[in-house]
Structure formats: C-alpha cells, structure tokens
Design goal:
Blueprint lengths: L5 H41 L14 H20 L6 H4 E9 L2 E4 H13 L5 E14 L2 E14 L2 E17 L2 E11 L7
Parallel strand pairs: 1-6
Antiparallel strand pairs: 1-2, 3-4, 4-5, 5-6
Amino acid sequence: MSITSPKGTFGIASFLILCLIGSLYYAYDKTNAYDELQQNFAEVKNGDYPPNSIPENTISDEEIKIAKNLIQGSFDDLWGGMDSTKILHYHTEDYYILEHGEIWDNDRINQFMRNRLKQGEQPKRVNRMEYHTIEKFDRAINIAYDNYGDFYRGDSLVWEGHWLESALIIPTDKGWRIRTMHSTRIPVEQKK
C-alpha cells in the first residue's frame, strides 16, 4: 500500500480521524470525571453531603467501651507485657499495622517480642490513651487517639513515647478484633 494511492490515503486518514475522535472522547470523559470530583469535594467541604453518601454513625456506648478496651488491652498486654500468646485476643489473623513507614503483621510482632525477651529484663511500659474520635460505620469501628507510653526501670522514668494512631476494629466470629492500625511517632523531648 502506497501513501499516495487513494486506498492508502483513505486508510491513513481514517486511522488518524479515529485517533482524534478517541482522544477527544477520552479528554471529555476525564474532564467530566474531574468536574464531578471537584463538585463532590466542594459539597463535602461545605458539609453538603449527597443523600445517603455517608452512613450514619450508629455506635453504642457498649461498642465504644469495647473499642477502648481493645486498644488499651492490646498495648498493656502486647507492647507492655510482651505476651505474644495474646496477639489473637486483640488482632484478626490478617492484622497489619503501618508503623512509621513499615508494615508489621502478627508474625513480625511475635518475632519482635521474642527478640526483646531474649535481651533480658525490659523496662515497664505504662500506656495512656487520649481518644479523638470513635465512630462506627456499617459494621466497622474507626478510632483515632494519641498513645503515650512511659518506660520505667524501677521507679525511674527512662523514656517517654508518643504516637498518633488510628485503628479499624471489626466483628469476627471470636468477637471484636483490631483489623488494621496506623501509627506515627511524635517527637518527645526526653527528660534527663
């Protein structure tokens, strides 16, 4: 096929026209999607949510207590007590935490605890939570809080930790469990 032949020219021209139509359609479709996204963002920003777009927060006092107890208990037993036998009392089997740029699962937590216990006596960790939000949407509870950990050797405070954290808690056949968490360390000026 030659570019100068009528049949060849028609084929190339048809191909170019189809490409042009396709790119215009693609650009139009992206523009509409972008406009819709901007409109939705403006509605959310102004508090004008589309009807039924966000499920109602239906958390009970009992569920709030369960969520707080799961968080506090997991830090007291797992991170304070280094008791790996209790991991599944608090976590789902497929649990993971995004821990300051790393992904930890139950196996990694278990290995961390074993390594720590091999090092001998550990400082005593005292955990305190300040809760920001506890919300339930459908069957999941989302919780956000500040986590403070004070580490003692005897009566002496040796280190203070502070983390901003969130967790997703879900019902399982074994009861409520933490499915996933996110943790970011907050710098703390250490006392000397």
